[in-house]
Amino acid sequence: MDWKSLLHADPTDWLLEPSNPSVRYFTLRWLLDLPEDEPQVCAAQEAIAQSAPVQKIFKQMHPAGYWGSDPNPHAGCRGRLLLLTWLGYRGDAVRPAIEYYLNGILSPEGAYAVEMKGRAIFLPCHAANLLRLMLWNGLADDPRTARLMDWLIGVQQPDGVWACISKLNAYPCLWATAVTLRAFRELPLGLLTPQVEQVRQRAIDLILRSNLYRYGKDKPSPLWFKFGYPLQWDSDLLEMIELLAPFISAEDPRIQSALKLVLDKQDPAGRWPAEKDPKGGKWMLAYLPFEELGQPSKWVTLHAMHMLKALHSPDKTCQN
Description:
- By secondary structure, the chain is mainly alpha-helical.
- The chain has a two-stranded antiparallel ribbon. A two-stranded antiparallel ribbon has the order 3-4.
- β1 and β2 form a beta hairpin.
- The longest helix is centred in the middle third of the chain and has 16 residues.
- 45% of the residues lie in helices and 6% in strands.
């Protein structure tokens, strides 16, 4: 079916407004399928680089490659680098910070390791975010990317989930699993080995068996049912369907209740509201205002349309 028939109206022109160059860029790429070298896409990338949030981030970067007063790479690099990735920035200005981050956080074995209270803490969710950052910034062929991939694959649990192994008693985490699938979405074809595809499929099967959000949880977080961006180490039902959309049928019974929940949040103009601020993201307010809660959100609408387009694509090969 035509996925736009599920919209009450087509808000594409609203998403293309130049006031938000990041949303405009991803709309051109995801919804209009324009190539990276198309003049409109190039112009949007340049507008992102010149936007006030990106300019402010780089103005405050320490020459060594971190931000703030704490030179620890986990504290001093992670947040701003993720924000730049979310905004769609690519450029040479970010490379010193990426190198500082990698040199301070990545173990020789490829693990994302942070020293806390006298012991090494291993963080798969942050490892997945780092993988996405590296892939987004053209480091797919970097040997450190391969080591990080191998480590991340190696800590997947047999049933397909990634566990929060930062605690003394590790526990399985669907958010960490979603963040890993988010990173895998950036993988170029050269890194989509049979092993990676098998690892991804185990995670997809696990999420579907868990009704998208209920793995091991009698009382899941209410954040699953509220939509807002950016997502850091958390997720929600909209993103879960978006991550699974290229691999499942739109008629799959396991997603129907969640899909209805998403569609029911749409307004008459085909837009979705912002319902939550970024988890742990108050520091972002120093760079950009959050979208007003309860009001139409360009970011949520973009991702909802991206999900519907992928879910109803006639070109995908459904793997379930």
